[in-house]
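Example 9 (inverse folding). The structure is encoded as follows.
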């Protein structure tokens, strides 16, 4: 699997290497997602786990939706 292409990873979520694609997406984007959530919600939450819970939930929605083919145009993010 090409680790340099986000588009290929997204398409990979629907293929036989879905677990590898999930792991790579999680590795790349989970810390940044947690940081962004923390920044946007700093006045709302008092526990760090809240941001992590939201980020993990967002990742699971992406992975589950891709597995169920809810995102038919993952191969072309430009359109």
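The amino acid assigned to each position is listed next.
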């Amino acid at each position: 699997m090409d680790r340099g292409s986000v588009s290929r990873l997204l398409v990979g979520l629907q293929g036989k290497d879905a677990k590898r694609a999930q792991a790579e997406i999680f590795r790349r984007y989970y810390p940044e997602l947690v940081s962004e959530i923390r920044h946007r919600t700093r006045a709302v939450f008092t526990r760090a786990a809240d941001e992590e819970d939201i980020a993990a939930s967002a990742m699971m929605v992406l992975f589950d939706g891709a597995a169920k083919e809810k995102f038919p145009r993952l191969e072309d993010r430009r359109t």
